[in-house]
## 1
Amino acid sequence: MSVLEVKGLSKKYPKKDVFAADNVSFDVGEGEIYALIGPNGAGKTTTIRMLATLISPTAGDAFMDSFALTKNPDEFRKRITYLPDEAGAYKTLTGIGYLEFMGSLFAKDRAELEEFVRRGEAISGLGEKLRDKIGGYSRGMIRKLLIARAVMTNPKLAIMDEATSGLDVINALEIRKMIKELSVNNKTSFLLSSHNMLEIEYLADRVGLITAGKITAQGTIPELKARFKSDNLEEVFVKAVSENEVL
Ligand SMILES: Nc1ncnc2c1ncn2[C@@H]1O[C@H](COP(=O)(O)OP(=O)(O)OP(=O)(O)O)[C@@H](O)[C@H]1O
Ligand SMILES: [Mg+2]
């Protein structure tokens, strides 16, 4: 069963001639990790920001539990969490203070809030550093905190735009492992975007390749490798993108 269904989602920004997202359709199943890949400016963030209810679609719609993004953005928003591609966090709060504040927006009572924060603490892997002010965190530490925040409330769907960008190899690996575990053990669904093909090969159950606003190829990684006669996803990416430039 699909957790998220995206149907013909399109976005034309004011004063632009072309659609940044053009009739984008895909679905994400329960516990599935779906990855959007594509060149810079292809429309990944635009698609993600529409689904995060931050910008409104020009056309098309998306559905979660039969709630439509366009008609019921509040119901839609309750079911997702969103990690932006570039994000800071309130520098004057401590890590734990931030988790408590963000948790309080989702928790129905004190007990649930405590459970969220406990989960967030464990997932962040930041240990005692959570007692420090965020102003003194490194980029990687902030990223870990934001990722912990995005999954601690048990969303049906966690949307993460370039989750591990800027992280060192060890931190990126830890975060990938955590995403995989949550999808397998917790049945959390993920919509990810990434430029790291190694990361996508490790994580993604299915991939949608966006070129110039359109999904031009979609499938499991073995399916895509077979279709583009490639041994790895980087080769798939290059072939799929160049194929679309010719057309
Ligand atoms: N706020 C905006 N106003 C106008 N045009 C925008 C805006 N945001 C994005 N665009 C344009 O929409 C297109 C898609 O951009 P988008 O950020 O969705 O790409 P992306 O796939 O996320 O790229 P990247 O890999 O660089 O993150 C680009 O042509 C971009 O210039
Ligand atoms: Mg982007």
## 2
Amino acid sequence: MSLTNAPDPAIRQAVVQQDLENVLHPIIQHKALESRQIVVTGAEGSTIYDADGTAYLDAMAGLWCVNIGYGRAELAGVAAEQLRQLAYFPHTSMNVPAAALAEKINGLLGGGYHTYFVNSGSEANEAGFKIARQYMKHEHPGHYRFKTVSRYFSYHGTTLATLDAGGMGERKAKFEPFSGDFVHVAPPYCYRCPFGLDYPSCGMACVRNLETTILGEGPETIAEVVIEPIMSGVGVAVPPDEYLPEVEKLCRKYGILLHVDEVINGFGRTGKMFGHQHYDVAPDIIAIAKGISSAYLPIAATVVKNSVFDSFYGEVSENRQVGQVNTYGGHPVAAAVAVRNIEILEAENLAERAADVGAYLLDGLRGLMEHQAVGDVRGKGLLLGIELVKDRAAKEPVGPDAITAVVNFCRDNGVLVGRSTGGRRYGNTITLSPPLVITRSECDRIVETLDRALSTVELG
Ligand SMILES: Cc1ncc(COP(=O)(O)O)c(C=O)c1O
């Protein structure tokens, strides 16, 4: 059975049948899929096409990942050429595209880093936790520095450890209990400051909370702190500018590694190549995925500062090498595609474009504040959130049915928007993370569709 972009209701129906009888989908309830599905058969720029011919403006770039936009045929050529040349060999050896990609990443970071390749954002963070622990064993023999400090409402992946690192109780509930190696602190979610304070008079209470936690746990038990520079999952929480530098200072003070999760923030999304580059910090460990290849092929990486790399360097007899392997790590075809993807990001100045078009979109979204249900509009680059509340003064979140109705209204009007996953309580933010090639007129369409949704949907 083959589907082209030409609408064909009979073939579409057959695919839906085949899928419902054979596929187990993530997150979405199958019962819902029985009545409403999108069968994606093609995509171009920021638009995806259903087999029935319906076009949707994808304001989420898939899952926050198709940074260069859909339909870049040249990447098919790169993949085909590399498949013919060398499809695969384990990364205990070397290959041409992976070496080139690591060099490219090192250059984007200003030098001083080595890259360990994996296949997904979860694996990139998971490898980061393990590298931090192993580093501490090398550097502090006889000590046991194993804990990771992370933030409530964060998301770092779907494996047991990354889920444990995440701070969304509802996402974790089905899989408890966890190891307890992850300690959580309050996030810099300023619209709902966990301390009930306002910036800047808060004195960065969230950073003081982090220091109290480090001291309470005992710095000698902590390997690293993991931070997504701009928290996406909670509904895009942009921290005060001094937050990340202050966290870095604490890490240096207590000999703790700073692990930054750039899985969504990276590769131009926030208006710079990496989110942490807004804040002039030098992380020890950086998890990258998604935009590294704009999801044209699965590839991800854990990038480590040379001071960490040096700890893994020594005589064979010292047994300092990285203590894990991923079969597909450094996959030559995915690496070749990622290199060309980054070349496109650079040649088309897509990070700068994200800053520019993102500011335009943010401005348009601020106009939605005329709806009483819009409590907050925020973002950086093309990573944005519109938080919906029942009452602006009380900031009571709208319920799950209301936010679902807004998302569905937009979808039924041809625009795919996302929503926060901050658990049942804070799942009340519409999220936007479109391809970095989105045009201003497409941004206007997102704003206009949300405007109609907010006027139409019962939000009370
Ligand atoms: C911030 C962050 N980290 C890690 C991940 C996990 O990435 P993956 O789904 O590729 O495993 C995600 C996924 O959305 C993410 O948003």
## 3
Amino acid sequence: MRILSVPSEQGNLDQNKGCGKAPPLILEGREFDETPIVPSNIEDTDKAIYAKAKEVLAKEKALFVGGDHSISYALVKGFSETTDGKKALVVFDAHPDCVQFFAPLSHEDWIQGVVEEKLVKGENILQIGIRKVDPLETEYIKHNKIKVVSAVEVKSKPVQVMDKLLELIALNDEIYVSIDIDGFDPSIAPGTGYLVPNGLLEEEFMPLLDALLKSGKARGIDLVEVNPLKDVEGRTVELAKRIVEKVIEND
Ligand SMILES: [Mn+2]
């Protein structure tokens, strides 16, 4: 598995300045390649990320460490163009990230880019940990048949949530996994742009990630929105490091 940093925060809408500084901290002591970023130019940056993702994912599995969540649009685009099989997207996040269609796409609406450009079908997108939804998003999710599992469901119905994930895995050939650190509870991930209470705990998240990794179908994975400037006692970076460790040990 290749490891790449994607140190762009150009899609953060001034909500998470500093998240571009996370990759070298999270990947400290590991070998990794840096995805070239074009300063102050999100369109060209997206093109560079997309080109890199396409080049790498055509050959092997990869873990991308960001950066803000807008990078996932370019990464999923690269992923979708390097497979002929049935594709799924699993996202861990507090937010559904489909408020509207900004141009260029931001970290609040990258999912609309994925759906509108048919990179992955709405019914093959599963969002887990969701707990802050705009009414516009509720409408969009319903219209596009996106599957949503709330953080409350993960806590109250873990068996059903696992079954739902396993069903999606079984129905698809290749899976992209996007992990927004704000899917976690602020007590363990205080270093990010939007803190939403009652998020996922590590022990609730790891079995789900484990199922994805063990399936052998998770070809592209990203970890985004960690902000060292907002971190408390390095907790968020440490959590991110444990996630990276888990991904790599299952490779
Ligand atoms: Mn989020």
## 4
Amino acid sequence: MENPLEFLRNIKSVAVATVDKGKPAVRMSDVMLAENDKLYFLTARGKPYYKQLKENPEIAIVGMDKNYVTVRVKGKIEFVDKSYVEKIFETNPVLDEVYPEDTKEILEVFCLSEGVGEVFDLSVVPPKRERFAFGGATVEEPGYRITEKCTACGICEELCPTGAISEGDIYKIDRAICLECGRCYEHCPSDAIEQATGF
Ligand code: SF4
Ligand code: SF4
């Protein structure tokens, strides 16, 4: 697929989750710009959104297109120079109708500059997933993994809904098509399967 950050910019309105005094908070927010592996958003200093980000500068984002391709991202944000307000107005002219010129001073721009993400493509059967990272973060591999403890009994292969498990001296999971349902993990008699790094 295209660059997953560009994908989110093209969707434009995505769900952005923050932490509000230890509890989750979410809203739709527009990706105003995708540039140099960073996603830019706009908010106003009076919004709970802004206050939550000041207290805990981390977000999680999800967006899905009409083909049921989902991109999720989580990572750190930073507030950027006020000059970005003008840049964002230039690339998103609809903002002129919401914030007239003399009200722009209340606006702040932040960017998601480092994080990890996942593309989950439900337009194909079985669905495919792929992890990525940007801004210096390390990719977290998706799905479950079979370890050396495997006795090759074959139980997991029969239970897997996507056919992601193949036989061998040690059975193997194709993590790109693993649904992360955990069925193999729960039923393995040898405790040979490691749990996925979740999103
Ligand atoms: S169920 Fe466990 S021991 Fe059996 S093949 Fe699968 S991973 Fe190996
Ligand atoms: S977690 Fe579910 S989809 Fe993934 S390999 Fe195990 S049984 Fe298959």
